């Protein structure tokens, strides 16, 4: 009988082994073990303590050793076990096929053969290899198809478009953006235009699976065999290349293109694919998409193209460098031949009748140069105004606007813009000849605004690329005596109060005020004192006195002193309120002191013109706006357009307009021949600005001339004769020419 603690085979009992294994290490050893495990070595890496030696005994210790094996070792063991089970299950079922499999297995050299025949596989081996290849290829294609996803992010250039701006008559004015492309819905592209492209590129488009096996095979053969590349792609493949992939002609890109094309053909309708293709393809002359190509080659919208012109554009898809007929005689010959072939092809596929084909005998010559509507020196200011307004009124984010695709139909009148620009340009040249030194710092701002708020023309500066800010929209200099009509309107609208808290007294054009120079400004309590303790007095231009004068005549003759007192009697708050209601911005209004009545406010030319337009509109004011309609890829964008509102009474507006008409007749009797022409000059006390503002035929124009050295400060400088004389008033000359009265 075996001794205690020993098995009959002489090994220690398991319990004894486990007892030894469970003995805890000494406290000192444990401490050293933990410290060594966390102590950093010379490379500042945590030291990994060595694994303890596994016990020699089996049983539970063996299982713990198995648990300590690396994960990949355990996974390998599990895989081996699974493979064994598969063999046990499938082996009996596959056993009958073993003889056939052995026959297909190539034995080299083949037994029973001599010479070179020993190295040639049998027909069974050839058949087996071929069938296996097809099966593997099929499996590969199925897996590749399932693993291929349609990219969610399109190429940037495939989605980015340009924004096109139009004059008020609908003709293109300018475009902005890096990519010249405008999307068009398929419904807006004539059917013959679509089929001209399909006839040229992919007549079987509506029936094919999205790829051309023949075309892909040809491309692969040329790429591998001749080191060249070739297309032969379907329209779906070309669209995938345009919007999802790069333009590199590699086998990998062609394979990805084919997989995406197959999946896209199952996910999208054919019409959607065709629409995307027509809007993203390169047509030459810097254009993407058939809409911009139509404008570049024929100067018309794609909806106006006929089949002959469409065939020319379809030719460009083959390569504009080879088929643009305006580039060379050889190009012209190729273009005519391909144009004729495309039309014949349309007949072959039943999309053009022989009778219709017979109409296109003469090649439709494209424009010699594409009509590119890039911004120019002056039109940059127009684009800037329209862009700011379009974003605000159309609720368009900067990101969406930069992606493009917008058609912005502005209010700018091409003829008025030309007339205004020519007038200012002429004045600039005269200033350079007569006042060379002062002309270097001269600035001219001008704007024409219709009575219904439309901004018809602006002069923003000589060159937007050199001077970024828009002088027509700059609130930099005081209005001076050009502000007097707002004083007059406030008095007529609200009346005056001679006593504090008393009832208002009506004011009419016949109301008399003191027109003498140096008259002290009074309040119901007495003279008005400024902060320095001096009485405030009003002064006329040239310190001229006019005696007792009616308000109507005072405005016609630009007498200042009556209007300073009128403003005090009406209330400076009422004057401010009236000016803002008429169109001036509250932010441009000057301090509410007596000088407010003499134009210490700084309106822009646009706002001054808008304010005078209110009087021409019978007292109704409409906020000035520069965009009348916006579309994006043909779809209308909601635009918040301003509505007219009552600023002053109709009779008040008529009285002001009458006084302004008298002013124009008084100062320029020979030129005041326009329909309901009215206007007034404006000067400042320190001769830093000269204005002329007035209306004719429901259009108001304001012109300002001033000096400012932007390199030094924003302080206005004396004009030094730049504004001319009373006989040769420069602002008036610009105004009269712009209004067609000069």
TrEMBL record:
One Pfam family recorded for the sequence: Transgly
Domain Glycosyl transferase family: 170-346
Family matches, as Gene3D superfamilies: Biosynthetic peptidoglycan transglycosylase-like, DD-peptidase/beta-lactamase superfamily
Secretion signal span: none
GO function terms (MF aspect): carboxypeptidase activity
Keywords: Carboxypeptidase, Glycosyltransferase, Hydrolase, Membrane, Multifunctional enzyme, Protease, Transferase, Transmembrane, Transmembrane helix
Biased composition (Low complexity): 68-78, 670-682
InterPro entries reported for this sequence: Beta-lactam/transpept-like, Glyco_trans_51, Glycosyltr_51/Transpeptidase, Lysozyme-like_dom_sf, PBP_transglycosylase, PCN-bd_Tpept
Highest rank taxon of the organism: Bacteria
TM ranges: 126-145
Residue span of region Disordered: 1-78, 495-527, 664-683
Reaction equation(s) it catalyzes: [GlcNAc-(1->4)-Mur2Ac(oyl-L-Ala-gamma-D-Glu-L-Lys-D-Ala-D-Ala)](n)-di-trans,octa-cis-undecaprenyl diphosphate + beta-D-GlcNAc-(1->4)-Mur2Ac(oyl-L-Ala-gamma-D-Glu-L-Lys-D-Ala-D-Ala)-di-trans,octa-cis-undecaprenyl diphosphate = [GlcNAc-(1->4)-Mur2Ac(oyl-L-Ala-gamma-D-Glu-L-Lys-D-Ala-D-Ala)](n+1)-di-trans,octa-cis-undecaprenyl diphosphate + di-trans,octa-cis-undecaprenyl diphosphate + H(+); Preferential cleavage: (Ac)2-L-Lys-D-Ala-|-D-Ala. Also transpeptidation of peptidyl-alanyl moieties that are N-acyl substituents of D-alanine
Domain Penicillin-binding protein transpeptidase: 524-688
SUPFAM superfamilies assigned to the protein according to its UniProt record, in alphabetical order: beta-lactamase/transpeptidase-like, Lysozyme-like
Record's compositionally biased regions (Basic and acidic residues): 1-39
Record's protein name: Membrane peptidoglycan carboxypeptidase
